[in-house]
Structure formats: C-alpha cells, structure tokens
C-alpha cells in the first residue's frame, strides 16, 4: 500500500509518501513541504499548493491520500487557512479518483506513539524509528505528513473490515417496508332536514291531538256517561199537609 500523507497549511503544507503493509517494516519514498508566502493572496497560495500536491501525485502515484482532519482552534484565521489547504488536497485526490482518508491529530499520535497527547518531538522521534531514518524529518510539518501516512497504513485493515461488515449487513438484512398509507373513512353525510308536518313529524297520525289523544273517542273523558243532573230541592214533590 502506498499512501501520500498531507499535513495541510497555507504557509507550510507537509507531504510525505510511505509504502508498506500493517505488521511489516515500512519504507519512506519521499518527504517535503509545499511553501507559500504570507504576502501572496490567499487564492494564489491555494493555486501553489494545488500545483505542489499534483507534482507529488505524479511523481509517486499513491493509492491513497491521508489528510489531517481540521479541528477547532482559538485562532480562527489559522483554522480557515488549514481548512482551505485541506480542501485543495482532497480535491486533487478526488480528481484522480483516489480514496481520501481523514485522521484527527489524536488518532495519528496514538497510532505512531501510543499516546494521543504526544508532542511533535515525540511524533518525529517515532517516525524516525519506524521508517529507519538517520534523523527526524524537518520541519515538523514533514514529519506529521509521514505520521499521517503511517497511521493510515496501520488503521486501514481494521477500517476496511469494518466497512465490509457494514456493507454485508446492509445487503443481507431484509429491506424494511413501510406500512401502507392509512386511508381515511368516507365522509359522513348528514341526514336531510326534516320539514315540519311531514310523515312522522309532530302533528301527523299518532302525534298529540290525533286519534287516541285526550278529548276524543276512547279518551278517559268520553269513556263513562255523565251522571244525571240533580233536581233542585224546590222541584221535589212534598206531601200535602192537612189542616
């Protein structure tokens, strides 16, 4: 596996190429720095960085490109420049169809030194030992670029296995179907207004005031005959009194 490591930066963009596989001795193929002047416009500096990275890609033909992941810093201007240089490196790799891997500084330090809090001197010392160099690469940006390449070579097998496992799980797991759309019940129609006086409405047959209602045949007031009128007492006949 041949990897180009890129430590992005506007003033100094470190680049380094390492070849090898995890578990075996690694070999450095080249290391350097792409420099731009602070007096140059930012757009022109990015063009210079692009040209420098393209030259390294042409010269070494790497299979992968490892770029340091940009993280937040207190100096916003530095973060912006680092992010812009990182984007240029990713663009150069994508243009050639090369896979790009992003590694945080903590990941790189942990992979090379065993501690995610190692300083630049410790990183440079371990890079020198791992690549069997005579002296640590200078400046520190160059050593960081080599450390990025080493980190990717060592982490790539585990990362690839994880990606393959995720891909296999997606292909074997059944597709989750969504439940069919729930249809709404048909619109409930209201009954037509009942006009007064129609069949079944008040005042029709069977309603109060019709046959069977009080005051007509069959009602209690007509069921019994009235008692005969009492004759007044003056109309009664009395026996005559004899004198």
UniProtKB/TrEMBL annotation:
GO terms for cellular component: cytoplasm; Holliday junction resolvase complex. Belongs to the RuvC family. InterPro entries: RNaseH-like_sf, RNaseH_sf, X-over_junc_endoDNase_Mg_BS, X-over_junc_endoDNase_RuvC. The keyword Metal-binding applies. Residues 164-243 are annotated as: Disordered. It comes from Streptomyces violaceusniger. The keyword Hydrolase applies. Its cofactor is Mg(2+). One of its GO terms (biological process) is DNA recombination. NCBIfam families: ruvC (TIGR00228). The active site is at residues 7, 68, 141. This is Crossover junction endodeoxyribonuclease RuvC. Binds 2 Mg(2+) ion per subunit. GO terms for molecular function: crossover junction DNA endonuclease activity; DNA binding; magnesium ion binding. It is found in: Cytoplasm.
